[in-house]
Design goal:
This protein has 82 residues and is mainly α. Helix content is 62%, strand content 0%. The protein has one domain. The chain has 4 helices and no strands. Helix 1 packs across helix 2. The longest helix has 17 residues, at 28-44. It is elongated. It starts with 10 loop residues before the first helix and ends in a 9-residue tail after the last helix.
Length: 82
């Protein structure tokens, strides 16, 4: 099945994306995806996935037991305060 194509209707966005795509040797869709991911990360204040996994790898090594990490951080909900 073919992937959906990106339609950039803004002339300014198109003028910015095409030279970036040529310089980075990738598609315009990839440039737009990376830009949107960076924007989303900046707005949400979250760490990008690539740097998160790099930090995990440095901290814990290559073999991480996610279940034990989650178990350590898990806390029981105290319920509703009435």
């Amino acid at each position: 099945m073919a992937e959906p194509q990106l339609s950039v209707r803004s002339a300014r966005a198109r003028d910015l994306a095409h030279p970036l795509a040529r310089r980075e040797q990738c598609t315009v869709a990839e440039v737009v995806e990376r830009a949107l991911e960076a924007y989303e990360a900046a707005q949400a204040g979250r760490e990008p996935a690539a740097s998160f996994y790099a930090r995990l790898s440095q901290s814990y090594g290559t073999d991480i037991d996610f279940e034990s990490v989650l178990r350590e951080q898990r806390q029981a909900h105290r319920g509703l305060e009435l």
